Amino acid sequence: MKQGIVRLLLLLAALPVHAATLAADDYALWLAPVDGGAPIAEHRADAAMSPASTMKLLTSWVALQTLGPNYRWQTRFVSDAPIKNGVLKGDLVWVGGGEPRFRADDLVAMLRELRRRGVREIAGNLVLDGSVFSRVSSADDFDGDAECVFAIPPDPHLTNLKVAWLQFFNDGAGVRAALEPALPGVVLDSRLSDGGDGECGDVRSRVAVRHDDSRVEVSGKLPRACDGAQTFLNLLSPADFAGQSFAALWRELGGAGPRRVVAGTAPAGARVLASHESEPLSTVLADVNKYSNNTMARTVYLTLGRGPGDTPANAERAVRQRLAEAGVSDEALVLENGSGLSRHERFSARLLGEVLRNGARGPWYPELAASLPIAGEDGTLKKRLKDWGPRLRLKTGTLADVRALAGYYQALDGRRYALVAFVNGTSVAETNGAIDELIGDALARLPR
């Protein structure tokens, strides 16, 4: 019996790999029960490798441990100016809270609160106070992806993820397009014509859209079936987008002013005129991990570094401190922005595996596990590893020459396992097939 167990462990320690696509030096694997004990299987588990977006698991674990699942971000409008006859006789300061997903609807709600206070005109400036972060951590070597939504950097005033919606109409009243919000500094030049009958499909295949930070041009023949279709555009800097969104939505509510948008800080003693409280951290992490939102993950990471001093340096210190408290070595850890959108970030499969084990034994395991994609059901795993179903929850990671998976599996006997797999290097396939097979090979040796 004992010899049989030994043989099984040796077999597990040398899991077969899809040899046609993976080189032995290009992957790492770590699999262990969360209730402790030696790993069941490991291969190059101490090698420092790019984790891609599985880095978000480390950031999520530290955030839950440090901030708690009910942590909420605060956004405020403040002023020290009096309100007379509906006019705010001075500046309105927008104190950015660094909320990971501050929506246009949240901004509208704050503006409505301002109107309920009796303000109809802002005589001074709109001052953007972004002092919540001393600076934003980098994501070097992604300049070619600057126009992509996944590469949008965090910002204390990031509104609607800096995305404007372009909506198309062909309803008998003329073929046209409209920008939402109607950013006052951006000219929309619509040169659309009637495309007649036929299916719409992806509206971007029917029309041409060109834009810079001051102009959006739309041309082409728009089928009637595209009436109401929309697409999104990444426009402006975060500060310009926030300021122009404020101006557009404030005018829609009948408001006048401000004179201009400037950077600054809130005066001491300024009173709060409107405020917004974000969704709790646990809800935010579901967006971060299920849909691998880089901008939101980077913002959560920066939140770990709030306070005096250098924000990214403080955030890194918070991560390393939590690892030390958990008894997890940080020797292999290289941090840049906490999201995995990085050419520099590294850690080992063992480090992340031990973090997952610690998280599974802690009070916030339900929140951490609930944030992960469910195999074959949702998020970035909706079309992957379907045979394993809801017992398998994994965070995915994808970069050029990098594939990663990490999370939890619960066997039929109720025992839970932590699982980490990284593939880095030239043998990475264009698809996810090789790493999915690697995961399947590991799980096939556990009770179903």
Automatic annotation (TrEMBL):
Family matches, as InterPro entries: Beta-lactam/transpept-like, Peptidase_S13
Signal sequence residues: 1-19
> Which keywords are on file for this protein?
Carboxypeptidase, Hydrolase, Protease, Signal
Keyword Metal-binding carried by entry: no
Enzyme Commission code: 3.4.16.4
**Superkingdom, natural source:** Bacteria
GO MF entry, a single one: serine-type D-Ala-D-Ala carboxypeptidase activity
Pfam families linked: Peptidase_S13
Q: Which family does it belong to?
A: Belongs to the peptidase S13 family.
Listed name of the protein: D-alanyl-D-alanine carboxypeptidase/D-alanyl-D-alanine-endopeptidase
Annotated organism of origin? Crenobacter cavernae
